[in-house]
Design a protein that fits this description.
Shape: elongated
Number of strands: 3
Distance between the termini: 47 Å
Strand content: 5-15%
Strand order of the largest sheet: 1-3-2
CATH superfamily of the domain at 24-133: Winged helix-like DNA-binding domain superfamily/Winged helix DNA-binding domain
Oligomer: single chain
Largest sheet: 3 strands, antiparallel
Radius of gyration: 18 Å
Structural class: mainly alpha
Order of helices and strands: HHHEHHEEHH
CATH architecture of the domain at 24-133: Orthogonal Bundle
CATH class of the domain at 24-133: Mainly Alpha
Length: 167
């Protein structure tokens, strides 16, 4: 059974017709199902999506833990828990910041890079399945529009203005 078939068995096959006139509702409906699908994919390698967010942000170099919280829009106490979990799994580690004794940097370990590669492969398969009702051109258009909204719309920008001041 593929992902789309499993959704059909979990409840209504689509959103209530009366609510489909609102783009925001439809976006929320699809996002909820996409989030569930992505959580299942990431769980196959023993992670949560937030773990992957941290690993992805530090894959090219360490980052201050407080900055990770800002970038991922996660409360600082939640980030502490996420990094604790990543350390317990042997995927990342904290080290003191060289220039600021109050700051802690989070560094990725080799096993963390391996997890990113594992999730990347599984994500491609799951995305292909999830977006299969759309043509490749429609998928590309949707991705472009969502990227534009994320960068320029009310949910953006991706960069937190505080990032410019944080090393």
């Amino acid at each position: 059974m593929n992902f789309n078939e499993s959704l059909a068995g979990e409840g209504p096959e689509g959103p209530p017709e009366a609510l489909t006139k609102w783009t925001g509702f439809l976006l929320n409906w699809v996002a909820a199902h996409a989030r569930e699908a992505y959580e299942r994919v990431v769980a196959q390698v023993g992670l949560k999506p937030q773990h992957l967010g941290v690993l992805t942000h530090i894959q090219h170099g360490p980052m201050i833990q407080a900055r990770l919280s800002d970038r991922l829009r996660v409360f600082k106490p939640v980030m502490v828990t996420l990094v604790n979990e990543l350390e317990a799994m042997g995927l990342a580690e904290r080290r003191p910041h060289a220039g600021d004794r109050r700051a802690v940097e989070v560094h990725i370990l080799a096993a963390g890079l391996d997890k990113i590669r594992e999730v990347d492969s599984l994500s491609e398969q799951a995305s292909a399945e999830f977006f299969s009702p759309l043509t490749p051109q429609e998928q590309q258009t949707l991705h472009g529009l969502l990227t534009k909204l994320a960068k320029e719309g009310p949910a953006g920008p991706w960069q937190n203005p505080a990032d410019a001041r944080t090393p």
